[in-house]
Sequence to fold (105 residues):
Amino acid sequence: MYRLLIASALLGGVATMPARADDRVTISYDRASLVTADGRQALERRVARAVIRVCGDARVTGSLVTNPAVRKCRAEAEAAVRPQIERAVAQALRPAEVASIDKGR
Fold:
């Protein structure tokens, strides 16, 4: 099992965002699941839910207007986690390395 980390603290946080217990989320995943498009999409959905949990909902209650601080947090969180996702997918798609012992024959 492998993990991705989304943390508002890593992003410098957002000053207008209230302190939350969920300011750091770890997402576990199975590398083998990332080999398929469905598995990668499932990870993307889990990341999107985690970003919302960390940063909050961008909609202002009772309004169609969105909270700019939450939008900024979400954009920064998504940008911070993107390299982790790309690295995990690349590792999952890389052919397995097979070790061999050359005994000089």
Observations:
- The chain has two helices and two strands.
